Amino acid sequence: MSAWAGAGAFLGVGWGVFRDYPFTLWSSLTAVLVGVLCAYLGVYLVLRRWSLLGDVLGHAALPGIAALWWGAGALAWWWYLPAAWVSALAAVVVLAWMSRRAKDRADASMAIVLAGSFGLGAVLWSRGQRAGHGPSAVQDMLFGNAAAVTEAQAWGTLGMVMVCIAAVALCHRPLALALFDPSYARVIGLPVQRLEGLLLLVVALAVVVSLPMVGVVLVAAMLVLPAQAALLLRWRWRATLVASVALGALAALAGAWASIRWAGVATGPAMVIAASVLFAGLWWWTGRTSRGGSSPVPVQGQEPSHVG
Amino acid sequence: MRPAGQGDRGRGSEATSSAEGVAPSSEGDVSAPLLSVRGLSVVLGGRVVLEEVTFQLRAGDLMGVVGPNGAGKTTLLQALLGLLDTGVEGDVRFGGQPFSVARRRVAFVPQRSAVDWDFPVTVRDVVLQGRVVHRPWWRSASREDGAVVDQALADVGMSSLASRMISDLSGGQQQRVFLARALAQRPEIFVLDEPMTGVDAATEGLVWQILEAHRAAGGASLVVHHGVEAVRRHASRVLLLNRRVRGLGAPRPTLTLEALAETYGVDWRDHAAGTP
């Protein structure tokens, strides 16, 4: 009953947003696209145990954006995408180089690169402000701004989302095997490192595409929250992907509408709050129906294992 | 007590030469061994983990690799299967071919702990992975692949659990899934890394039973296992390993107290309770 009431209220807000601000069709579409893309890739990212990497990529995009802004002044939004992508990937290269020497402390390396690149980005940012560059699309990239999304941006996002999802979906079979059992995958001859590299490139692209909507600080949450929530359901891979995508789209739409409807609500944080609420709801629901409990299945004529 | 690595070097090389002395010298021999390892040395992080390891695996061999922790057993498997990028020297041939050409004929069963058992896949999905090596990566599984997988599941007694999520399985069941995946590959050689760790007695018996059937059918297996007694009972040959080959041959003459004492660096003759 409460679920129907919630859905009704949600659609009511949406209807109000569309009626009062007709131009928000494009930002709603872009929000859904971003939510879908992040949620889809997030399943792979979370299963690879790279959840923190999304955070690194997001924060590491800032130096590229800020440097371009400082150097060239305010430009159209799409100028910043290659700068952000290169900047994020540069951080990954540094990370890979660091992890070669400190293999067992990958999390520390991630924390260092994340904080370091964000610090660098913040300095470049303030230099840009000092240089007197006026407000621009760049400022929206910190926390995201759904209201600033244009029609061209929506179409551009659609194209990028399709490229990203197609690249990963095409490689799903070998990629999933490489993530599940890397040593077996290498033994049968799969290019595990190249597959992981592909995932990394695509996730970096997804982060960059999502920045105008979610912002550098919180983009990782849209990668991790819907995926982790969907994995709570303990469904098969394809069903998990569908669930994650649905949750991501819902959270993104809710966040976009909330930020348009109520002044002073930034889009990225609103999306993340919506995703968190969905995650909490699923956490409670899966715990209540005890789907989360894993009891070994007995086989006839077999004793339970001694360990594990 | 003698420290490991300082025992008389004679015995290891003696066993090696007596067991392997008749090895064919020319490649591509009709009776070429399924696996031939010659002078394999591995250096990891500046440490010599394996030194001049030489042995052969022939059709009908079920070879147990025995040695203490840190002896280089897992490293040996990694080196054989091309999992080490650097620091490997020596010659490894599978039926006269390098591993990169022969990988289809070799089924690897990793340690159970090597994977995340909370992955959102079913038992059957995992066993289907065993067929990936037989088709181009973009092609989906054929009906024949499905039939092979069903047979493999039946062989390990997991048919009724085929559509279960792997996160629902016990340790023994997980090991059966891994074994079924290897069976589905229809290999010449099984390479197993500690397959009995944390599994129930029934599963352990099943693993040995399948490997013995494979050996009877003319295949070969290489099993890293810490249980000396089980290896003595089930294996047809034993490789005693601690950095170097400390013994090689049939289980009973190879697994002597002296050889074990040298390999493990412990003299069991001083510890009646510890007699293997």
What features would you describe in this structure?
The complex is a heterodimer of chains A (308) and B (276). With 308 residues, chain A is an all-alpha fold. Chain A has one domain: ABC transporter involved in vitamin B12 uptake, BtuC (Orthogonal Bundle). Chain A is built from 13 helices and no strands. The relative contact order of chain A is 0.16. The C terminus of chain A is likely disordered. Chain B has 276 residues and is of the alpha/beta class. Chain B has a domain of 174 residues: P-loop containing nucleotide triphosphate hydrolases (Rossmann fold, 3-Layer(aba) Sandwich). Chain B has 10 helices and 9 strands. In chain B, the strands form 2 sheets. A 6-stranded mixed sheet of chain B has the order 5-6-7-3-8-9, with helices on both faces. A 3-stranded antiparallel sheet of chain B has the order 2-1-4, with helices on one face. In chain B, helix 6 packs parallel to helix 7. The interface between A and B is large, with 37 and 49 residues.
